[in-house]
């Protein structure tokens, strides 16, 4: 899996660099580039694999993979702001507002969102209908009924009178991290005009397994490997899958979800092997 | 002009309310709705008038007008943040981060940007090609080569060693306020697949005239009418069109630009009368 992720990393880096190089030089563009450095590129991999499963070329899928990673980078930059999660370390580097300034971090995030939408208009992706399907789904995954809604719930939970229960956390994370993962995993059929159901089902399970693994890493992880502060949720008294299920319970639930994700790919047969590997990878990773 | 603006105000309010009502209820959606209250709706008027000049119906143009106003609202919410211009009054009401919280204001801005793109995918607007032209132009107007770039320059100017000169301010404002105004004014031909040149020329002049009038109002304006703090630029020692040209010089320049804007509409004849009225309105307004 790591070899495939490294391949995707190089492809996405080139696509992002090309898009960023077209912008006016200066601190804003530098901060945007800084924010897109590193990361596991799991979302990009989802886009490229989902594309292959539906006969869509890497060339067509790459702007979409870059858009998803640009969007993900914006969400991290804004989530790390002092008014939000107030983090100083991300991907092993100072967070964007520490490296530059709070104003530049806000603006870099804003511009990365716009860049993501710009990437989805690219000719290489396919016909106008295909691109519009993508853009519509993307706007929904990002906005006030998707990722941003999830982040707002997460912030609200910090000052809530009682911690969230399992149902509320599942709903929250289904939006905060799940919505973009579902978009990425269904990009292939969205471009090709195919059926999104199986990949959407896979992505729902994968997204939750991924988040549970993140919660486990916040407890058991090594800051040098994860590249971000650990133990933060517990210190903040936040409910997580670990606080609600226990460490063993969380591990069992992640494994169950990963298996369900794999099973959702049955109709794709051998061709979906990389996506099955990914389901195992997300729960076994130490970064 | 005010009667036409009031008509547009009601249409845009209805379109925004419809789009906002589809979002999950809660503080995030409330803050987004709050941020879209009020405003002169000059950008929406530009969209609707430019549409009429190119045979595009109000029904087709309205989602675009709503998108432009949602985007404008997001930019005001983020510009007003403590890390940016740190404003507490906007459109006569507490700014979004004062009324809610800084985190909610950041997220409401983020979600308003996504909502703007979602609105541009609406079927009513026209065929897929038309909507893609709009979305591509919009992403360019908003992002790191457009509005956000202008705002970054504006923030950087506050801590620069010497104030900006006329050329630098003109370039900065051409991006910060000009890019979205140019998008709005060319929305009609972008939808219809027509020639954008005359309206783009009009919008360049109008945008600058508008900004000069804003700088004049910051010096001569009444806070009760403008609904925002006045005298801020001078207190911050910021270069403005007034500090560089003097009050009389700025008034003369605004009048000259408004006349050039009107002249750019010659080929449209009588049909462009509302846009000519608007050019006079933006330099004569006291709000």
TrEMBL record, chains A, B:
Keyword Transferase: yes
Pfam families named in the record: polyprenyl_synt
Coiled coil regions, renumbered to chain: 247-278
Top-level taxon in the UniProt lineage: Bacteria
Annotated signal sequence range: none
Cofactor annotation: Mg(2+)
InterPro entries: Polyprenyl_synt, Polyprenyl_synt_CS, Prenyl_diphosphate_synthase
Keywords attached to this entry: Coiled coil, Isoprene biosynthesis, Magnesium, Metal-binding, Transferase
Keyword Transferase (UniProt): yes
Similarity comment text for this entry: Belongs to the FPP/GGPP synthase family.
Protein name: Polyprenyl synthetase family protein
């Amino acid at each position: 899996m790591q070899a495939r992720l490294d391949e995707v990393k190089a492809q996405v880096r080139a696509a992002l660099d090309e898009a960023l190089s077209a912008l006016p030089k200066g601190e804003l563009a530098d901060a945007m580039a800084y924010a897109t450095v590193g990361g596991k590129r799991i979302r990009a991999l989802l886009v490229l694999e989902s594309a292959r499963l539906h006969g869509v070329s890497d060339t067509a899928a790459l702007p979409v993979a870059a858009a998803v990673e640009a969007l993900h980078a914006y969400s991290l930059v804004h989530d790390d702001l002092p008014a939000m999660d107030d983090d100083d370390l991300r991907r092993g580097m100072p967070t964007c507002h520490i490296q530059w300034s709070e104003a530049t971090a806000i603006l870099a995030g804003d511009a990365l969102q716009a860049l993501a939408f710009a990437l989805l208009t690219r000719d290489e992706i396919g016909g106008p209908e295909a691109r519009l399907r993508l853009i519509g789904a993307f706007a929904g995954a990002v906005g006030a009924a998707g990722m941003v809604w999830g982040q707002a719930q997460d912030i609200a939970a910090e000052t809530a009178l009682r911690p969230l229960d399992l149902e509320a956390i599942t709903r929250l994370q289904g939006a905060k991290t799940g919505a973009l993962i579902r978009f990425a995993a269904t990009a292939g059929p969205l471009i090709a005009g195919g059926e999104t159901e199986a990949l959407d089902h896979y992505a729902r399970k994968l997204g939750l397994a991924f988040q549970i693994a993140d919660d486990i890493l916040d407890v058991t992880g090594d800051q040098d490997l994860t590249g971000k502060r650990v133990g933060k949720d517990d210190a903040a008294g936040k409910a997580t899958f670990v606080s609600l299920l226990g460490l063993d319970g969380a591990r069992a639930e992640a494994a169950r979800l990963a298996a369900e994700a794999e099973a959702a790919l049955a109709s794709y047969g051998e061709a979906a092997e990389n996506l099955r590997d990914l389901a195992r990878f997300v729960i076994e990773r130490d970064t």
